[in-house]
Amino acid sequence: MADSFDAIVIGGGPGGYNAAIRLGQLGLSSACIDKRGTFGGTCLNIGCIPSKALLHASERFHEAQTDFAKLGIKAKVDLDLPAMMTQKTKVVGELTRGVEFLLKKAKSEAIVGEAKITAPGKVEVKLPDGKTRTLTAKNIIIATGSDVAPLPGVTVDEERIITSTGALALKSVPKKLLVVGAGVIGLELGSVWRRLGSEVTVVEFLDRITPGLDGEVCKQFQRILTKQGMSFHLSTKVVGVDSKGKTLKVTVEPAAGGAQQVIEADVMLVAIGRRPYTAGLGLEEVGVALDAKGRVITDGHYKTNVPGIWAIGDCREGVMLAHKAEDEAVACAERIAGRAGHVNYDAIPSVVYTMPEVAVVGKTEEELKAAGIAYKVGKFPFSANGRAKTIASTEGFVKILADAATDKVLGAHIIGPEAGNLIAEVTLAIEFGAASEDIARTCHAHPTLTEAVRQAAMGVEGWTMQM
Ligand SMILES: Cc1cc2nc3c(=O)[nH]c(=O)nc-3n(C[C@H](O)[C@H](O)[C@H](O)COP(=O)(O)OP(=O)(O)OC[C@H]3O[C@@H](n4cnc5c(N)ncnc54)[C@H](O)[C@@H]3O)c2cc1C
């Protein structure tokens, strides 16, 4: 086995494995190293994939319990949590093995072990058997991802005080679940356990859920989740947890300080965010610069300050999303191969996989206002969409924002059924520099949810027809 490559990729997540695949396609040799034991990173092992498997299963369970009767279906359903978890684990196994197959196909050597950069162009890998292997390459790509941000003063045991990883593997349904953090991960996993029967309380430091999302979407989203049975304590912080008794006693107080309150819970999920992970990589020794948040600093082409060392994905700046890591992987590999790889950060969608889903791309109204950009808005509710009616899922709306002068699409904000799939059309429009009129004049199949996107686009120029 060769120990010298065109590139060494550290991390086998969506950033790392896609970089290795693209390098292979471009005729460059690589090794892809991950210490986890299986490939696919956070995303496939303990992130996107297991969470979506549980979201899907719990949604079907909830639907069968509450919505089937409305459709004229009588059903009595019972929860088999171990079987649900087995199905999730099966999906994860199939996909992580799939990544190994893809790496092999790209002629990238998949190495299980912990990597450390000992000099530019040199990586030492601690193998599972305790031996060390030294690899060399002209290029090193850091794709080591991120890890859960801890809550100061709170010790995670992954049984009663858990992170997202524990929330994907609970052995029983907690009677009372306290979620700390109303971001995407907290709300998705809170939804899973709510549907399976938990009483879910969410504590959020800020005065709104899913900060960063369009304000109007946030308000409707919170209303819907509240109707589903979640309760929210906004502008509130956790100041301590007493775990001595049978139930956890979680002390909270207003974010600005004030009277304390104790919330009892069986399980507490800490979901206050994620932080870049670069521990033990040897970056300080090699002189790779990090920013104040611990992210690897790169230029627009993913080069760090040390020649031959690159960084992509969650460990550098930007949204922590699998497809952002994937796009950076492609662009970085292309740059290494001497091509002009590039990522359009205005066209990166973001999805919350709750029911209904929330999906966004591009700018929010708040951002456009702050930037002084004049814009027009087109909006269409799912309650007026025929397909949404037939599937009994009429909550939410599509909102499209376009430049007031040029009509160029600047953003889209969707809350409603299949929002995560619907956003792809507007993402493509932004990527192509399309106008809202391009969407409005494109024929959309009937009856589909995509017609709501078209009607919203028509609304930008004031000619929504079906409302
Ligand atoms: C519960 C949850 C749900 C999520 N859902 C979604 C979703 O629906 N959609 C979405 O887009 N994103 C989602 N994410 C975020 C997504 O998982 C990350 O954005 C994505 O995995 C980042 O990819 P990456 O390649 O940068 O890093 P990672 O996937 O974190 O991979 C980095 C890998 O590097 C390895 N590594 C680190 N240091 C070393 C070392 N020294 N030597 C060897 N290996 C090392 C780690 O073991 C890890 O496997 C979710 C995350 C979580 C936690």
Key terms:
467 residues; 7-stranded mixed sheet; 5-stranded parallel sheet; 22 strands; globular; binds flavin-adenine dinucleotide
User: Biggest β-sheet: count, sense, barrel?
Assistant: 7 strands, mixed
Mean pLDDT: 97
Bound molecules: flavin-adenine dinucleotide
Helical percentage: 25-40%
Regarding quaternary structure, how should these chains be classified? single chain
Based on CA inertia axes, which overall geometry fits?
Answer: globular
Computed structural class: alpha/beta
Q: Strand tally, please? A: 22
The whole-angstrom Rg is 23 Å
Range of strand content: 25-35%
Q: Poorly predicted ranges (pLDDT <50, ≥5 residues)?
A: none
**Distance separating the two termini:** 66 Å
Helical segment count: 14
